[in-house]
């Protein structure tokens, strides 16, 4: 089964949105196989956002993501990378549809609540970067036959 990485950013944690966001994930039928509240080192932030290192907003992005705790998750499901991105919404919350996390909770691109892996390849990289193997749990949800 496919896996993806989602991370509630410091603004989402700071606005007490962990429960609301996790609730959407569970209601959608996705399985949480790993989750933790953690602080982000500058090194981890720079590695995670490495593809943006030449962009003018990189410094602000690293400062923001290290400014408070984040809630990191690994989710499992069919086609879950794409499904996760759909739940998250567009990068700019002002352009994100209502019903998406960014569309419902965010106003600016600099504080857009949540990260979601953008491809299967980045999901694999990000999961390995953020989680140890033993932090990911293999288990079955009894209701999965009603989801699939
Ligand atoms: P996404 O998070 O939707 O994958 P991205 O990978 O293009 O978007 O950018 C990573 C993060 O960087 C994004 O969530 C918020 C920030 N960001 C992107 N474009 C920005 C911009 N023009 N100004 C400020 N921050 C930006
Ligand atoms: Mg991205």
Automatic annotation (TrEMBL):
UniProt-recorded Gene Ontology molecular function terms: ATP binding; metal ion binding; nucleoside diphosphate kinase activity
* Record's signal peptide: none
Keyword entries, A-Z: ATP-binding, Cytoplasm, Kinase, Magnesium, Metal-binding, Nucleotide metabolism, Nucleotide-binding, Phosphoprotein, Transferase
Tell me the Gene Ontology biological-process terms attached to this UniProt entry. Answer: CTP biosynthetic process; GTP biosynthetic process; UTP biosynthetic process
Q: Which reaction does it catalyse?
A: a ribonucleoside 5'-diphosphate + ATP = a ribonucleoside 5'-triphosphate + ADP; a 2'-deoxyribonucleoside 5'-diphosphate + ATP = a 2'-deoxyribonucleoside 5'-triphosphate + ADP; dZDP + ATP = dZTP + ADP
List, separated by semicolons, the cofactors it needs.
Answer: Mg(2+)
- One Pfam match, given by its short name, reads NDK
Q: Which residues form the Nucleoside diphosphate kinase-like domain?
A: 1-138
Q: Name one GO cellular component term.
A: cytoplasm
Which InterPro entries does its entry note?
A: NDK-like_dom, NDK-like_dom_sf, Nucleoside_diP_kinase, Nucleoside_diP_kinase_AS
* Active site feature: 115
What EC numbers are recorded for this enzyme? 2.7.4.6
The UniProt annotation places ATP binding at 9, 57, 85, 91, 102, 112
Alphabetized SUPFAM superfamilies for the sequence:
Nucleoside diphosphate kinase, NDK
Q: Where in the cell is it found?
A: Cytoplasm
Q: Which PANTHER family match?
A: NUCLEOSIDE DIPHOSPHATE KINASE
**Assembly and binders:** Homotetramer.
Q: What does this protein do?
A: Major role in the synthesis of nucleoside triphosphates other than ATP. The ATP gamma phosphate is transferred to the NDP beta phosphate via a ping-pong mechanism, using a phosphorylated active-site intermediate.
List the HAMAP family: NDP_kinase (MF_00451)
- Assigned protein family: Belongs to the NDK family.
Q: What is the name attached to this protein's record? A: Nucleoside diphosphate kinase
- Where does this protein come from, organism-wise? Macrococcus hajekii
């Amino acid at each position: 089964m496919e896996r993806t990485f989602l991370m509630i950013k410091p603004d989402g944690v700071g606005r007490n949105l962990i429960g609301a966001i996790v609730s959407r994930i569970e209601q959608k039928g996705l399985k949480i196989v790993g989750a933790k509240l953690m602080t982000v080192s500058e090194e981890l932030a720079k590695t995670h956002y490495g593809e943006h290192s030449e962009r003018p907003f990189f410094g602000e992005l690293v400062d923001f993501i290290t400014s408070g705790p984040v809630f990191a998750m690994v989710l499992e499901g069919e086609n879950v990378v794409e499904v996760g991105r759909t739940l998250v919404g567009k990068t700019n919350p002002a352009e994100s549809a209502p019903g998406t996390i960014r569309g419902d909770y965010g106003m600016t691109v600099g504080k857009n609540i949540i990260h979601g892996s953008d491809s299967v390849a980045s999901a694999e990289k990000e999961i390995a970067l953020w989680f140890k193997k033993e932090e990911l749990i293999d288990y079955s949800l009894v209701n999965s036959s009603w989801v699939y």
